[in-house]
Amino acid sequence: MPDYDQAYQEFNWKDVEKNFSWYETGKVNMAYEAIDRHAESWRKNKVALYYSDQNRDEKYTFRDLKLRSNQFGNVLRTIGVEKGDRVFLFMPRSPELYISLLGILKNGSIVGPLFEAFMEQAVRDRLENSDATTLITTKDLLPRVPYKELAHLNQIILVGEDELPDNTEDIKFYNYETEMKKASRDLEIEWVDREDGMILHYTSGSTGKPKGILHAHNAMIQHYQTAKWVLDLQEEDIYWCTADPGWVTGTSYGIFGPWLNGASNLIRGGRFSPEDWYLTIEKYGVTVWLSAPTAFRRLMSVGDNVSEEYDLSSLRHILSVGEPLNAEVVHWGMKVYKLRIHDHWWMTETGGIIIANYRSMEMKPGSMGKPFPGIEAAILDDAGNELPQGQMGKLCVKAGWPSMLRAVWKNEERFNQYFPVDGWFESGDLASMDEDGYFWFGGRDDDVIQTSGERVGPFEVESKLVEHPAVAEAAVIGKPDPVRGEIIKAFVALRDGYTKTDELQEELRLYVKQGLAAHAAPREIEIRDFLPKTRSGKIMRRVLKAWDLGLPTGDLSTMEE
Ligand code: 6R9
Questions:
Q1: CB half-sphere exposure, 558, CA atoms < 13 A
Q2: Which atom of ligand 1 lies closest to the CA of 349?
Q3: pLDDT digits (tens, 9 = 90+) for 437-460
Q4: Cys staple from 465: which of 25, 271, 357, 474, with CB 3.0 to 4.6 Å?
Q5: Is residue 432 lining ligand 1, measured as CB closer than 6 Å?
């Protein structure tokens, strides 16, 4: 990105549209722009996908992905899947997952990616609400799909399985490999309108069933430009986004953003381990690395001697998203990687990056950065008035950015609730903006604590706790109290080598008191082996709160085991 202030002033989304072939042809399809366009250019033999896990190690060029996704588009067409139909993916990361996803888009259908770890209720809720007709899954995961009870689901494609279950009146089974072999490599892509539905990501709130957030092909405008400027993708880069496609980060920046820019994209299957991750960076010579605070905190907690055993010198740019990135982690990153970790903020509903730290910009560790050019973000009060600098309020975005959600599936009322003030999208997060225009995260609106008349953002307290050498992770909640309204309670997971003692608990309390404020010091500290988290690494404060108070926990489908 050129100079931030200049870019912010001169930027126009309309100019970005000129980068797409539909600007001239009028024919729109995300998969075409992400893959085929490169496959038809000098990039055709460039590696688009490096895939590896414990058993596989493969490479696919843009041309390979074009032909294979053509084949899969033909498979879907042959079995009667139509434009606009919802086709879901429920499988571990594999090349087949990515090829299927592209084929679904080429067919003009709407793709719904699910985490492989989902259990039956989570799968049922999503397939039911979306009225999905077709599912791509594996034999291992099939027992978690209640397909006999799902009225709309009428076909299942099994990947990696030669013996198929018997077809019934309601459901037909297909084998991925068999169908692919029969399918032509030529496909007439289904050209769609830029406003047509493309992807449906389900996201859980604190109450009720998960909601289906719908994004349109038009989102590519934002995926392209944010990947260019925030991820800073260059031709020679080996880019690694560690997110699963069940999480929006794993599609917007694990698939669309990098491929729209013609980048080489690395996907590593299997589970997290510090050794495996560092070895992956070393082996592939990863240059741009996007991950989440939970991963960085875990890498931090195993000690610096682990990173020292690997050659990480290929890295040139590191990014983090999904949760507040404590300043402490940024400082640690500078020590261990000799690079800044660039925090940025967005959410499933925004479809793409909204606020970010850019390489060309001065960074304030602990801040999420500044709004992307072409985007207006503001801190508003309940009535929709802009709050003065430094004051904590509702983080809102001026409606109309290219990747804004287009609908909440079958729930217009919920969709409208995102826009309580005319023209503004309300994120549900609290934040403040400082005198230099940097945004600082304050917590989820529903997580804020009121203690003895003081408003305390849990994130501030958590960040302080994480600065203490004994603390790996912390989560802070407000606990009802007859005198103070609420008291602050902290849940803490310790770093390797520390043990739970009364002295340590008291030390942590004093540490917050002296470092932050007396009223912000937790009155209760509970040391736990682990903290409940979503699969995308977000600490689930509402679950801790429910456990603590003995209340129902609500929807747990996105929680890690
Ligand atoms: C991309 C993604 C969205 C919520 C969001 C906020 C939290 C995301 C953050 C962050 C602090 C950051 N969040 N990025 N909090 N600093 N840089 O995470 O989407 O899964 O929908 O979550 O995550 O609370 O509202 P999603």
A1: 28
A2: 21
A3: 999 998 888 788 888 777 777 888
A4: 474
A5: no
